[in-house]
Amino acid sequence: MMEKLRLGVFELTDCGGCALNLLFLYEKFFDVLEFYEITEFHMATSIKEKGPLDIALVTGTVSTQRDLDLLREARNRAKYLIALGTCATHGSLQASVEGRIRDRLERVYGTRANPMKALESKPVTDYVPVDYALPGCPYDKEELFQVLMEIAKGVEPVRKDYPVCLECKLNEYECVFLKRNIPCLGPVTYGGCNAPCVRSGLGCIGCRGPLPGANLPGHVEVLRSLGLDDEEIARKLRTFARWEP
Amino acid sequence: MIIEIGEFTRVEGNGRAEVIVEDGEVRKVKLKIIEGPRFFELLTLGRHFYDVPDLEARICAICYLAHSTASVMAIERAFDVEVPEEIQLLRELGLLGEFLESHALHLYLLAMPDLFGYPDAIRMATRHGELVREGLAIKAFGNYIRELIGGREIHGINVKPGGFGRYPSVRELETIERRSESLIRFARRAASTFASQEPMGAKAELFVATDGYLFGDELVASDGERFHYTEIEEHSLEYSFAKQSLYRGKPFFVGALARLIIKGDQLTPIARKLLEEHWEKLSTGYVTYNNLAQAIELVYALERVAEIARTLLDRGIQGENVPIEVREGEGIGYVEAPRGVLVHHYRIDSGGRVTFSNIITPTAFNHAMIELSLFEEAKRRYGELPEMEFVQRLEEVVRAFDPCISCSVHVVRL
């Protein structure tokens, strides 16, 4: 029998969803276990085996010294590191909070002291090289399943490089932007989620991060024409990632 | 001497504890919430109210609907908007789906391996695969409801001030009614499994919950007092990113056990019978019976979900949102998240922008009680158990609270 690949899940600061989403594969999770042995995953198991890993899945942002140490450990031990979810790939919400960390600590805890070593929240990709980045808040679990299966078979997974709009077209969803004038970031956002927000008749909020090469200035112009002011547009764009127009 | 409990496993988020022993006696326990701070209240300041529930949902993946619902309720109160019963029932349905998903995750995948002596549910499945699969079936059903009401299994954006983006269809409601009834048998088995667990931790003396079973207008304590969350004092600790809360200077308990003790009379028939059957144990107040209480709530959620689906099918879905007129205002949303009371409180200006935001999560309310429980259990077991078992036992006590550590790290009064 083929030897199983060693997989570790490392959770930095986040909502827990990206780790949880793996368990939401249900029966397919057992298929993953045919190819992988999970040697650590603190939300799911009390087992912690040190040693080299074939794959490290890292979720969350680097928001404390503890996160940074854990990330470096994961990178050093793993052959292949996947930054999983928008926190890890783009920083997501907590990286978009404005103001310096000491000021924020003061506002929340009433002191500028930082005994627990909080850092400015940043994505994993700012600190270490990653072998694959899978965005999404949360990422699409079917996409992760495919990526894990491809790696198990020795195939390098390909990153999606089309906007959310394409998935609306494939699903034949009514375009909320053109038909109902609802602000939507679909045209400038990485596809791969299968457009669940548009399925609900709502606009895409850009949770998979900016699609490189998309016409952002043009899209900003269209959002203005819907009556949104520049401040609101900027906030929408900055929510999940640091978009550079 | 300090006994370190390394990062807790099989809980959501990152935390650890320190047991301080002097002269052979346990003197103090520190519960350290080391998950990085996430500053959600700061994030929402200046935002347009319409976008806020989608952002707040991201506080927690396990109970994102509780967050978006509490957020939407606070916004509606600020604008003096009343939603019709249909929308309330659909929100309740979503929250019940979340109870099923969250309780099943906690009971079957995180807590149950302790009862059978396994390090995780994957290994437990080799001997008890049936139980794990039953748990996954309940969890998947809960997520089906979350996806239907919330728009996605995790972090959907379908719950909006004044209503929903999309309303469920007749066929989807029929599916819910049918599937929930077939799962009750599994949930009853979970209740009898957890009834065998031995009591651990502290005996909680005071419980707090919202006045309705899943949401309400104010809080009630087990001593009968009704009050607003502002009566609860919070304070910062230098060893934790989460603050501690005290009510009248004392730790208190929120969660499934609190709900059953305060609101047991609101349960559905089978759940109510289970409550009576296990009342002797539950009423002792031992915090580890929170597991048993969650199992009884699985039964309640399954019964209630079918009831709601039937009601909506009988009256038909209108699917109309209530229009919102923007004006200056202030509102508090009280919701029962699976882990207990959740509060969202905002002030909104005349332009519809949030100017004040305060969120307190169940784990922040329970923080002092978790610490007290660790202390009591440590005093009871220190010197009696070998260190590794001692540490495991303390982890089991933490797990019973079903803590959601990543949610707890940004409680603030701005």
From TrEMBL, chain A:
Coiled coil: none annotated. It comes from the Archaea. Pfam families: Oxidored_q6. It comes from Pyrococcus yayanosii (strain CH1 / JCM 16557). The keyword Mitochondrion does not apply. SUPFAM superfamilies: HydA/Nqo6-like. Keywords: Oxidoreductase. The keyword Oxidoreductase applies. Transmembrane segments: none annotated. Residues 15-150 form the NADH:ubiquinone oxidoreductase-like 20kDa subunit domain. This is NiFe hydrogenase II, subunit delta. GO terms for molecular function: iron-sulfur cluster binding; oxidoreductase activity.
TrEMBL record, chain B:
Ni(2+) binds at residues 60, 63, 404. Pfam families: NiFeSe_Hases. SUPFAM superfamilies: HydB/Nqo4-like. One of its GO terms (molecular function) is nickel cation binding. Fe cation binds at residues 63, 407. The keyword Oxidoreductase applies. Mg(2+) binds at residues 41, 359, 410. This is NiFe hydrogenase II, catalytic subunit alpha. It comes from Pyrococcus yayanosii (strain CH1 / JCM 16557).
